[in-house]
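In the design runs reported in the main text, the only information available to the sequence generator was the tokenized backbone. The following block is the verbatim input for one such run; it is reproduced so that readers can re-run the procedure and compare outputs position by position.
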């Protein structure tokens, strides 16, 4: 029984392995995915995809219609025309009784022109030139070859490239060559080209109508995207109203409701923090006065230090609230704002180097006072822990970058995320002699994100910490 078990198990494993490629092919794992390859060539925008959905069936319908028309109408009309011309030539040849003379051919040609629109020319003693080979797509020549083989049954050469809209057919007879000149309308029908032109023209008209229609349908979605981006960048959304299809109006109404709820929550939080911080000032001031009247004992000094720390925390709360205030965005040159902050911070502390782009290249809508507060917090941190500070403003693509470097001890990468938490102090890792409320980086990042940007911390090539402030244009 044990041997049978060991014998069956490899067979089962082999069958499973044999079925595995089929399962992988069905699920698209481990192999080439056709849908991913196709998506590389599909339009990326909603306008392009919607237009493709409309145009693709139209093009397929026109292609199928053209193929059916060409396969049926063209084939039938061509065969009828070539058989008619070949029958006329066969009749005229039978009318010529040997010996064939130029006078007999001229008399027959006069009647042929009058009744068949065909001219005859007799060339006694000549033989046919070499026949041009037939090409794969020369349907008229192929059909003419079959008709001449069936009705005339004589060697012939046909030339359809004459400049005067004539067709030349030379038939080999026993005593010479009979040249038959006919109009091209005897072999070619203009209805085919008219149909193709009409089909292409109607397709272009329908395509233009589809473009205009889709642009009108996509415009409300694009406006919704612009409004959502503006709101994400912390700018006022004015003049936006729901429009377009029912689904687009529902999305626009949901966006407006979401915007109102977020603004209402931010306002309530700001007012609550401002109210609590302001109310705490009165009892703290009263406690400071009472402690000052008690004397200078050691216990009283400790209490005074605690009250002072609480007062700093309240001031930090108020600074945090001011960073979330209702200041309106104003078109400003970020380089000029940074220059003002740098000039103000140069009054004390280590030297600050500043590099800025060309004038006017870093202009965008910002809240000037809030942005100055964020940059000032970053500069004060850099001054506190470094001997030198470098500030650079650059324009990179669709964003403005403000880079602040220092040559201090920096912040370990594992603790950089904690540095943005409110009231988290990292003095043990940087400078144990310094203090603070732990709100500087929190306020700065909150202000930057309120502008739709972000604030990150990196290792500085100067040896310390680098703060990179990015603002979208």
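Verbatim output:
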């Amino acid at each position: 029984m044990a041997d049978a078990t060991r014998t069956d198990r490899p067979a089962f494993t082999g069958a499973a392995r044999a079925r595995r490629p089929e399962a992988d092919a069905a699920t698209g794992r481990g192999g080439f995915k056709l849908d991913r390859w196709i998506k590389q060539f599909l339009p990326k925008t909603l306008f392009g995809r919607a237009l493709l959905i409309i145009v693709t069936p139209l093009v397929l319908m026109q292609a199928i219609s053209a193929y059916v028309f060409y396969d049926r109408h063209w084939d039938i009309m061509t065969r009828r025309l070539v058989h008619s011309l070949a029958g006329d030539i066969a009749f005229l040849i039978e009318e010529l009784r040997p010996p064939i003379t130029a006078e007999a051919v001229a008399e027959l040609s006069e009647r042929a022109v009058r009744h068949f629109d065909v001219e005859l020319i007799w060339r006694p003693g000549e033989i046919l030139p070499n026949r041009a080979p037939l090409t794969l797509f020369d349907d008229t020549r192929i059909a003419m070859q079959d008709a001449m083989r069936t009705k005339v049954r004589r060697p012939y050469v046909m030339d359809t490239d004459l400049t005067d809209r004539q067709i030349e057919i030379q038939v080999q007879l026993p005593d010479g060559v009979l040249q038959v000149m006919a109009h091209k309308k005897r072999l070619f029908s203009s209805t085919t080209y008219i149909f193709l032109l009409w089909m292409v023209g109607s397709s272009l008209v329908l395509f233009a109508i589809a473009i205009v229609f889709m642009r009108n349908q996509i415009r409300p979605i694009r406006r919704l995207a612009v409004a959502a981006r503006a709101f994400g960048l912390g700018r006022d959304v004015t003049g936006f109203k729901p429009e377009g299809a029912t689904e687009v109006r529902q999305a626009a109404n949901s966006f407006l409701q979401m915007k109102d709820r977020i603004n209402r929550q931010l306002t309530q939080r700001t007012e609550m923090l401002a109210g609590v911080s302001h109310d705490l000032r009165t009892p703290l001031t009263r406690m400071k006065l009472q402690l000052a009247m008690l004397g200078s004992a050691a216990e009283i000094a400790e209490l005074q230090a605690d009250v002072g720390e609480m007062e700093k925390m309240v001031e930090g709360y108020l600074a945090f609230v001011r960073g979330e205030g209702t200041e309106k965005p104003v078109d400003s040159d970020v380089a000029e704002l940074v220059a003002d902050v740098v000039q103000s911070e140069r009054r004390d502390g280590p030297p600050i180097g500043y590099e800025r782009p060309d004038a006017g290249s870093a202009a965008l809508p910002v809240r000037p006072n809030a942005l100055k507060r964020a940059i000032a917090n970053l500069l004060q941190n850099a001054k506190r822990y470094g001997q030198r500070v470098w500030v650079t403003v650059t324009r990179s693509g669709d964003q403005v970058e403000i880079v602040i470097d220092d040559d201090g001890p920096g912040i370990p990468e594992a603790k950089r995320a904690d540095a943005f938490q409110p009231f988290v102090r990292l003095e043990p890792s940087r400078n144990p002699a310094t203090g603070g409320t732990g709100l500087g980086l929190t306020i700065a990042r909150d202000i930057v994100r309120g502008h739709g940007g972000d604030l990150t911390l990196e290792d500085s090539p100067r040896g310390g910490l680098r703060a990179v402030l990015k603002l979208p244009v």
